[in-house]
Design brief:
This protein is an alpha+beta fold. About 30% of the residues lie in helices and about 20% in strands. The strands form four sheets. It has a five-stranded mixed beta sheet with strand order 2-1-10-5-6. Strands 3, 4, 7, 8 and 9 form a five-stranded antiparallel beta sheet that branches. Strands 11-12-16-15 form a four-stranded antiparallel beta sheet, with no helix packed on it. α2 packs across α4.
Length: about 525
């Protein structure tokens, strides 16, 4: 005789199980909402999502970070934050289900995640101390209490005596009232937190609006009329601030009040330490230059390169006034470490800063004060070097030291200590897998070799000979240079490849390398089908 096996139902049925999951989700929602509100009284960077996200970025291998930038571009931070919220949501649901059977232990689990957030916040490079733990701890405490209360409403009640057919019950009405009230209160707290958070930077916004950039004592030359090729699809010679690439580790863009901002210059070989205000920099002689910046994470043919007109203070002059001498003139420091308000550290060779190039502390971009996303109130830039060794945004400290004594953020993560920009070129049009018509097709794009300049650009069709492209007018050796090529296209599939030659005579290499450790190399190609 066969025995009939039945899968036992969870106590209270599927509705109670669903209510347990909902309890966990509501507890997690409440914890995050309260934490966000508390972070407005501490600082936005101390919030658990930002703190955990920052810690994740710090501990992620360089290759994974590079992959994220390539795959998600400037949306990499949004993807990270969305992923953190999704994971927290799933864990909250799991804790809610667990609390159905172990009410106290499940609630304690919420507190554990609060401790993790607190540790992440207080261990960040920009941490202001133990107070940064408050958002995560207070939020977790509220979430734990809420989960305990909600699951209490799901406690099973015995069936009436003598009624063997009656099901064990739980307080459905009481749970729905408590859950609804918790959801409404959490939404209100979260909304208040976002409102207060949005108002936190109002002083910084007002300080930026109040900035009037003075005329540069050394203005940039006018952009030559022929610098922009007249071919549809080519990048504008000057990149707008909105379109300029942004690659950094800040999950929350710092909003720094220019009125209270200070920059300290100190370290080895500094005989006259200085602390400067934004007004001090505005009052100095300013230089204005067109400079192209490139991110080391830019793959061959990639988008992380842009050209803008910058205005600022010549950095070499400031260092000279502080008594700094480069190593080539007997100075003891060979590395300049720039520190940002968000804790980022960037190391730059002192010789490169003081060799006569237009290294600057930039105050403005394309005729306006720096946007917050690009470093307001002050950022550093050094022509000819990748951004991770030269372009510190939201800078607040400059220390003169040595490469032997200190490894900055990216060097600790296996990137090279020194990283001059490699000679590169890119085809902007036609696009990959485009379908141009047979006949004359304009091939065009940009080439760059900052601080060396571009002397020649050549295009090859399939395996044919290299043919000279027509170069647009050069603005300066620190900017990219546009080019164009008239191609007599014949029907079929074709591969177009470009290479550039810089002013030293070096030809862009065909050898493909990864972006790590000192920038990608290789030649950009596009495959098209001519109809």
């Amino acid at each position: 005789m066969k025995t009939a096996w039945k899968v036992p139902r969870p106590h209270g049925g599927w509705r109670r199980t669903a209510a347990g999951a909902l309890s966990g989700a509501l507890a997690g929602f409440a914890a995050l909402a309260v934490a966000e509100l508390v972070s407005t009284a501490v600082r936005p960077e101390a919030g658990p999502v930002v703190a955990v996200g920052g810690a994740a970025i710090d501990r992620t291998p360089a290759a994974v970070k590079d992959w994220a930038i390539q795959e998600f571009g400037t949306n990499d931070k949004l993807v990270l934050k969305s992923g953190i919220l999704a994971v927290l949501g799933l864990l909250a649901v799991a804790l809610g289900l667990f609390a159905l059977y172990r009410r106290r232990t499940g609630s304690a689990g919420v507190l554990l995640f609060g401790v993790i957030g607190a540790v992440a916040a207080t261990s960040r490079p920009d941490s202001t101390g133990p107070v940064d733990a408050l958002p995560s701890l207070v939020g977790a405490l509220v979430g734990a209490v809420l989960l305990y209360v909600l699951v209490g409403r799901l406690a099973l009640r015995p069936a009436p005596a003598g009624d063997a057919a009656a099901e064990t019950g739980w307080d459905r009405r009481g749970f729905l009232i408590a859950a609804g009230a918790a959801a409404a209160a959490s939404a209100a707290v979260g909304g208040l937190g976002r409102t207060l958070g949005a108002s936190l930077g109002k002083d910084a916004v007002a300080s930026r609006k109040a900035v009037t950039l003075p005329a540069a004592a050394s203005p940039a030359d006018a952009v030559p009329k022929g610098a922009q090729v007249r071919v549809a699809g080519v990048s504008p010679f000057v990149t707008s601030a909105d379109d300029f690439y942004r690659v950094d580790t800040a999950l929350v863009v710092p909003k720094v009040n220019a009125d209270t901002w200070r920059l300290r210059i100190h370290g080895k070989g500094v005989t006259r330490e200085r602390t400067l205000s934004f007004a001090d920099l505005l009052g100095r002689e300013l230089i204005e230059r067109d400079i192209t910046l490139t991110c080391v994470s830019n793959e061959v043919g990639g988008p992380y390169v842009g050209n803008a007109r910058w205005i600022g203070v010549r950095l070499a002059d400031l260092l000279d006034e502080c008594g700094v001498r480069p190593p080539s003139r007997g100075g003891p420091a060979d590395q300049l470490v720039a520190r940002s308000v968000d804790g980022m550290t960037i190391g730059t060779p002192v010789d490169d800063v003081m060799d006569g190039r237009d290294a600057m502390l930039a105050l403005g971009m394309n005729g306006e004060p720096l946007p917050f996303a690009h470093g307001f109130p002050v950022r550093m830039l050094v022509p000819g070097l990748y951004g991770y060794v030269s372009a510190c945004k939201w800078i607040q400290d400059i220390e003169l030291t040595t490469f032997d004594d200190y490894d900055p953020y990216w060097v600790k993560r296996d990137w090279a200590r020194k990283a001059p920009i490699k000679t590169q070129s890119r085809i902007d049009t036609p696009k990959p897998f485009g379908r141009p018509k047979a006949g004359t097709v304009m091939v065009a794009g940009v080439a760059w070799a900052q601080h060396r300049g571009i002397d020649k650009v050549e295009v090859r069709v399939d395996d044919g000979p290299w043919q000279a492209a027509e170069l647009a007018a050069e603005d300066s050796r620190d900017t990219w240079r546009q080019w164009s090529f008239r191609w007599r296209a014949t029907p079929g599939n074709h591969t177009l490849t470009v290479r550039a030659t810089d002013r030293t005579g070096a030809i862009q290499t065909a050898r493909r390398t990864r972006t790590i450790p000192d920038g990608a190399s290789g030649r950009h190609s596009v495959v098209v089908t001519v109809d």
